[in-house]
Structure to design on (322 residues):
């Protein structure tokens, strides 16, 4: 078995990755600053972190800022992992726009610190979690080799991160795998994301605001994404390749809102103009992940939304919120 260090391992995707690695008897160390980014209510974050901890076994959880090169390197030096799965990041465009300087420190300087430690301690592989936002505007069935034209600082910095990781590999420092997920959702997510926001607004009987009725997203259930990341981190054939890890089935924002209103049984919908800060996105082609990783996303959007609604309805935290 191998030892993994997972940065951002207490996040929505991260704790599911840790859980799956532990189920395969791998040893896992977590580095996660557990910040609210200045936009998530602290009590909500603490509730989610407590619930996420219940799903994992490791006690090696370091509340360390990856922007602190010395502190991060001490963790790597102490545990000497075989693989680093680098998930710690500003989570989306909105958060980067609110504080681009802080976002750059985490997404660029933090990544360099991870790569420098990996080089110094001869880590075998770095798995870098990028984003479908690197493509910019794209239509259906976009392949990993498509030209990337990101729109907005989040996508630009994610693509820059891919280049940094590849350059360390070019210099013989470590192997890599790059993962591009899309519109991830599911239980134990924060409210400030599109599916969660739609779902909770509907549960409150409110108005779901759809920014661009025809805009589509390749909504992907968190369990499927975590499975794909673990496969990329553990399979030899994934070395030095980039993978789209999504459901590969796009749904319009309006269709998603309508589906959620139907599942919840209440809520109304209001359409608005498209948000200019976000690219128009379609479906990502996942043939490479299917062939090399055996990746097989199983949860379709309607089932995923139903799973998420069930969890929210039974959540001790959300039961007490109007």
């Amino acid at each position: 078995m191998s030892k993994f260090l997972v940065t951002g391992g207490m996040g929505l995707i991260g704790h599911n990755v840790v859980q799956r690695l532990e189920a395969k008897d791998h040893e896992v160390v977590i580095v996660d600053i557990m910040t609210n980014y200045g936009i998530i209510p602290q009590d909500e974050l603490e509730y989610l972190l407590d619930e996420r901890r219940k799903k994992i076994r490791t006690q090696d959880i370091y509340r360390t800022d990856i922007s602190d090169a010395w502190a991060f390197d001490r963790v790597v030096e102490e545990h000497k992992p075989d693989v680093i799965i680098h998930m710690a990041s500003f989570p989306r465009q909105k958060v980067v726009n609110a504080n681009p300087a802080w976002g750059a420190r985490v997404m660029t300087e933090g990544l360099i610190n991870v790569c420098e430690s990996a080089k110094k301690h001869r880590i075998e592989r770095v798995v870098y979690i990028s984003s479908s936002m690197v493509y910019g505007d794209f239509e259906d069935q976009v392949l990993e080799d498509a030209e990337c034209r990101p729109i907005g600082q989040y996508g630009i910095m994610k693509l820059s991160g891919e280049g940094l990781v590849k350059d360390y590999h070019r210099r013989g420092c470590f192997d890599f795998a790059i993962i591009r997920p899309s519109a991830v959702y599911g239980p134990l997510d924060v409210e400030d994301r599109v599916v969660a926001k739609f779902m909770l607004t509907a549960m409150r009987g409110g108005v779901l605001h759809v920014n661009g009725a025809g805009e589509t997203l390749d909504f992907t259930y968190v369990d499927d994404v975590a499975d794909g990341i673990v496969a990329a981190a553990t399979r030899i054939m994934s070395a030095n390749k980039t993978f789209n890890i999504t459901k590969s089935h796009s749904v319009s924002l309006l269709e998603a809102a309508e589906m959620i209103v139907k599942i919840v049984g209440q809520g109304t919908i209001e359409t608005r103009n498209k948000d200019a800060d976000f690219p128009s996105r379609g479906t990502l082609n996942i043939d490479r992940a299917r062939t090399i990783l055996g990746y097989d996303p199983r949860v379709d959007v309607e089932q995923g939304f139903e799973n998420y609604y069930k969890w929210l309805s039974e959540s001790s935290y959300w039961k007490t919120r109007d």
Observations:
- The CA atoms of residues 19 and 56 lie 5 Å apart.
- The chain has a mean pLDDT of 93.
- The chain has twelve helices and 13 strands.
- The two ends are 46 Å apart (CA to CA).
